[in-house]
Amino acid sequence: MRIGELGRETGFKDKTIRYYERQGLIPDPGRTDSGYREYSSEDINRLTFIRKAKRLGMSLNDIKGVLQVHDRSEATCEHVLSLLDEKLVHVNAVLQDIQAFRDELASLKELEAEGIVGELTEDNYSFVGASSQKRLLQEVAPTWAELLKAKEIDAAVLVGA
């Protein structure tokens, strides 16, 4: 099968498939006499694995390592479990930050609703504390956004809407 068909089968764009080839995530395909790349069902399996691994939060380097172990016919289970354990620690830390951020936002909203503070804007939430503001703006919020995007998580579910 050619690259367009592989893309349709796996949901990856041609450009992404070529990038994965250059990065060594999928082997260089054979070529037809006319120079077209020729892919197999094994390439579909590899790209499917890559998609699933990315959804679990694995980096392309981690995925490449797993695939290299697999290609050498070594047991990948222990290696994959180790990588997943690392990701779980990271995800749990992010979730704790998200929960703390959610609690802080809920408290701010509650204070506004009770009339304790005026309308909340970027300029008047200084009572949160400068170090807390900096952490929220620089660390938690971007991590939260990345996590939501990478994991396709509905933000309304996290904030209890």
Question: Your description of this structure?
Answer:
This protein is mainly α. The protein has two domains: 3-71, Orthogonal Bundle (Multidrug-efflux Transporter Regulator, Chain: A, Domain 2); 80-158, no CATH class. Helix content is 66%, strand content 2%. The protein has helices spanning 3-10, 14-22, 41-55, 60-71, 77-113, 130-151, 155-158; strands spanning 30-31, 37-38. The protein has a two-stranded antiparallel sheet. Strand 1 and strand 2 form a beta hairpin. Helix 5 packs across helix 6. The longest helix is centred in the middle third of the chain and has 37 residues, at 77-113. It is elongated and about 75 Å long. 12% of the residues are buried. The model is unreliable at 124-131, 133-137 and 153-161 (pLDDT under 50).
